[in-house]
Amino acid sequence: MDVTADPLSLLRARTSEKWRSYPDDVLPLFVAEMDYPLAEPIAEAVVEAVRRSDTGYIGPVNQIADAFAGFAERRWGWQVDPGQVGTTTDVSVAIVETLRRVIQPGDAVVINPPVYPPFFDLVPEAGGVALEVPLLHGPAGWFLDLEGLEHAFAGGARAFLLCNPHNPLGHPQSAQDLTAVAELAARYGVAVISDEVHAPLTHTDGAFTPYLSVSPEARETGICVTSASKGWNLAGLKCALMVTASERMRPVVAGMPQEVNWRTSQLGLIASVAAFSDAEAWLDGVIAAVEANRSLLAQLLETQLPGVGYEQPRASYLAWLDFRRLGWGDDPAAAALERAKVALHPGPLFGGQGRGFARLNFACSPEVLGEAVSRLAAK
Ligand SMILES: Cc1ncc(COP(=O)(O)O)c(C=O)c1O
């Protein structure tokens, strides 16, 4: 299915963060929202729910667990036990609610910068202290620092907040690394909260591996938190999933007060069921559009801004751009906004490793992407 971004005239009528944070002369390529129109089965399901005034609390019996299990099986060959799927408001809430049940106040929680900025806030919100084990980069690309992780786990870290695929790098963690993480986590008694919200957007040349699928040790130590919010652009509808796969981890989610579950939005749940069950053709269309923009961005940078470092991601629609050779300072996004009227996400928010970097969201039309790079090049 062909999926094309809405024109700017329609996009500017949206009232979400992406479209209301800056004046109209700024091209917004910062927050992770996509410019594609909603998948028709999702739009229909939500509109029908509104039309029948089905806007109460989520029901005790619903289809979300089966819908996600079906999707996970078809997409990744991962067998999810629908009896071990819980829901809550969004992935951020899922992270805090799971994390606070596997740590004691003051415990260290490992994160891998450069990483999704809210991780730095969600860990203390859950009572933990963020312990940074940066990702490493070699000739074959990004990878987890297994020695650094072992050192942190042996030093007393009680949990690991993993990002797979990784935001902002669009890097799906390798099965080999995940297997090694699970062994270490089991050895040192560390709980792994695996944020897999970008997984549905894995590219055709990327390989996503669900943490809970890699080994018995992973199932003993892990909880997957995920949502249809990134894959189908449903962040405003508020519904996320928490998945366990062992008797050891089951009570962490199953034992949550019912209120955590009730905070799932009814419309979010209805939309997510439609996404996981009926909107895979749309998702494949988005992936094709995103992959085309991923390559287009490489060409545009090569011809117009050759000093910018860019490694094409293998998942999602975020580009981690290295401006250090251009001398745009620690926060190139500030210069981009001021002088080129392009809003990027500031690299330093992703941790100290982000100095001199900015994140660009290319889930837009090729025209908007072209215009953004021309503006940056003319700066
Ligand atoms: C890695 C990661 N986790 C969580 C979220 C937030 O998800 P939600 O809107 O469901 O809280 C995002 C949003 O971009 C993300 O990139």
Structure overview:
With 379 residues, the chain is of the alpha/beta class. It folds into two domains: 8-39 and 280-378, Alpha-Beta Complex (Aspartate Aminotransferase, domain 1); 44-278, Type I PLP-dependent aspartate aminotransferase-like (Major domain) (Aspartate Aminotransferase, domain 2, 3-Layer(aba) Sandwich), CATH 3.40.640. Helix content is 40%, strand content 14%. The protein contains 15 helices and 14 strands. It has helices spanning 8-11, 17-20, 40-51, 64-76, 91-102, 119-125, 146-154, 175-188, 216-221, 250-254, 258-262, 266-278, 280-304, 332-340, 366-378, and strands at 27-28, 85-88, 108-111, 129-132, 136-138, 141-143, 159-163, 191-195, 222-227, 240-243, 318-322, 342-343, 345-346, 357-361. The strands form four sheets. Strands 2-10-9-8-7-3-4 form a seven-stranded mixed β-sheet, with helices on both faces. Helix 6 links the parallel strand 3 (108-111) and strand 4 (129-132). Helix 13 (280-304) runs parallel beside helix 15 (366-378). It is globular and about 60 Å long. The relative contact order is 0.17. The mean pLDDT is 98.
